[in-house]
Amino acid sequence: LMREFLPTVRAVGTLFVPAEVNMVVNRELLVREGKKAGVEVTAVAVSTSSEVSDAALAMVSQDIDAVCQISGNLTAASFGGISQAARKAKLPVFAFQKSQAHAGAAVTLARDYYDAGNAAALMAVRILRGESPARIPIQSFTKTTLMINRAAARSVGLNIPQSVMKRNPEMIGN
Questions:
Q1: Which of the listed residues 31, 138, 148, 155 has the most CB atoms within 10 Å of its CB?
Q2: Sign of torsion over alpha carbons 30, 31, 34, 39
């Protein structure tokens, strides 16, 4: 997806929290998949919300073409600092949480937690009606939503390719 927007992308940055296992795993995935695609990943560690803005400024001052912000609790809560640093550096932000599209990410590819919640509720109803949880198969929820924040994209000079528009993304921002 990033290559569709930035065909010559060669380096991206992300912040991660070493204490959040999900972020460590996602950072490793991003580095591995980046290497396969010929994209170098600069990962900057943060431990507290007060570090995020300074770490984001340090990250965007490095030789990167975009921010690809992996999901995590601390970075989600402090996303404004990441978005602001990227905007000042004229770098697009690609993210993985719907709320981050509303907070300044230009492109977001996110699981749809609303639909996942509905699926969980339907499963709860089955259990409340007497079905044994042991008989209900474990399901992985994989539906994703592609969101484009037009204002954020425009502010960093990011054009939306026709190939992306054909996927009918959810468009926000003016």
A1: 148
A2: positive
* Spatial separation of the C-alpha atoms in residues 149 and 168, rounded to whole Å: 13
Helix (H) or strand (E) holding 102: helix 98-102
pLDDT of amino acid 151: 95
Q: Which residues pair with residue 149 across a beta bridge?
A: 172
Question: How far apart are the C-alpha atoms of 62 and 87, rounded to whole Å?
Answer: 14
Confidence of residue 117 (pLDDT cuts 50, 70, 90): confident
Share of the chain above pLDDT 90, in %: 82
Alpha-carbon span 63 to 14, nearest angstrom: 13
Residue with tokens 């550096």: 89
What pLDDT does residue 108 have? Answer: 95
CA angle 69, 73, 20 (to 5 degrees): 90
Structure tokens at 16: 């991660």
pTM: 0.85
- Containing H/E element for 43? strand 40-45
- Other CB atoms within a 10 A radius of the CB of residue 42 amount to 18
Angle in degrees, 0-180, between the axes of helices 49-60 and 79-88, rounded to the nearest 10: 20
Indicate the pLDDT class of residue 53, thresholds 50, 70 and 90: very high
